Amino acid sequence: MKIAFHTLGCKVNQYETEAMKEQFASAGYEIVNEYDKADVYLINTCSVTGLADRKSRQYIRKMKKKNPQAVVAVTGCYVQVSGDEVAAMDEVDIVAGTNEKNEILNYVNQHIENRSIGTEKHILDYDQLTDFVECGSITSMESRTRAYVKIQEGCNRFCSYCIIPFARGPVRSRDVQAVMTECENLVKAGFKELILTGINTALCEHLDEILDRLEKMPGDFRVRLSSLEPTVINAEYVKGLFKYKRLCHHLHLSLQSGSDNVLKAMNRRYNRNEYLDIVKALREFDIHYGITTDIIVGFPGETEQDFEDTLDIVNRAGFGKVHAFKYSKRKGTAACEMSNQVSPPVKKERSIRLIETGERESKLFIESSIGDVRQVLFEEYDKENQALTGYTDNYIKAYLEIDETEAESYKNAFADVKIEKIFADGAQVVLKDKND
Fold first, then answer.
1. Are 220 and 248 in contact (CB under 8 A)?
2. What is the dihedral of CA 344, 349, 352, 353, to 10 degrees?
């Protein structure tokens, strides 16, 4: 039996898809490309925006068209919050909520064995999402160099625009030994970067213990935190991270807005100055500490001055990357019912301005790093640019001009490089030893 997967959304979804792939592979299924004809298609959905819902539906229909006789199983956040809507689609055979991903193999096997007709629903209610469910310990990822490791599930912050707490349930932390066993196996398998991830990683009750144990764990690898929420951490907290030598000098800190008025309406639980205090602490430790962020434009009631406050903080923080999102109504959230919804044309115009500002600051961040020596983990060869590529510890994409044959010896290896100039979507670098 052939099975194809498609993943939408966050790093947690990518991790969980890999875990499900390994379950099916262990059971004798052949994993094929999503563009190939398969007997089973599994779509792991996202619901962070209305666009994510729409993309999920598009892929469901697209998969079924490839083989009308195939079993289509759908899981993820869109299923958890809109299960009836997904189940009503003619193309869908199985829907499974976010806490049911470990059972999908059984659901698919039973569906095939019983030759079931109609859509099967396996969705727990919110108050039943109480356990951290193991999908199995992963041993590989599509990337051969960097691997995601899920350490936490759920969120209890309930930002007024966000549906994810309802999709993922309350906060649960993964067993520390399960995390460490997975990390040890991944390092033994050759992975050089472990990316700790979760729905709200900072809420993992064992995060400090995990970082302590990874610091002492044998092996040639580094650790990256996928994100930390300023709704949970502050400047003093991040100072405590500086003792970890394996930890990359990069954090994803979701800002969402630079306006105190909007932050309060979002229920974000911090103000712009507190956010900038975190930035200051990071940059005092490493002047070129990489900081990436998410920002929503057009939140209900956002004025032009509120938006200007956001642009101001983007300029002051010097982000390495800004992910811009237009506010999207999510049924069931507090913001959906708010008055003073911002019109689509205004949201579009502000989004364009934010993207332009973010791209300018990203280039300035790289430009300011010229001359720096950073550690790069080289990953793959870019034939178009005739360069070996990878990411610095502070998350700048590095391009090393090198012959493709020679590049093989540098793949999945660390190297100290000097940043030379802005190039493509990152920076051109040279090996440090060539400049000593």
1. no
2. -140
Evaluate whether 405 touches 392 at the Cβ level (below 8 Å).
no
The 3-state secondary structure of 230-261, one letter per residue: CCCCCHHHHHHHHHCCCECCEEECCCECCCHH
- Model pLDDT for residues 274-314, shown as the tens digit of each residue: 999 999 999 999 999 999 999 999 999 999 999 999 999 99
pTM beyond cutoff 0.90: yes
Say whether domain 373-434 belongs to CATH 2.40.128: no
> Under 8 Å CB-to-CB from 189, ≥6 apart: which residues?
139, 140
pLDDT in tens, 338-359: 999 999 999 999 999 999 999 9
SS (H, E, C) 69-130: CCEEEEEEHHHHHCHHHHHCCCCCCEEECHHHHHHHHHHHHHHHHHCCCCCEEECCCHHHCC
Report d(CA 198, CA 15) in Å as an integer: 10
Rounded Cα gap, residues 411 and 192, in angstroms: 11
Sole residue written with tokens 């990256």: 224
Class of domain 254-368 (CATH, top level)? alpha beta
- Name the CATH architecture for the domain at 2-128: 3-Layer(aba) Sandwich (3.40)
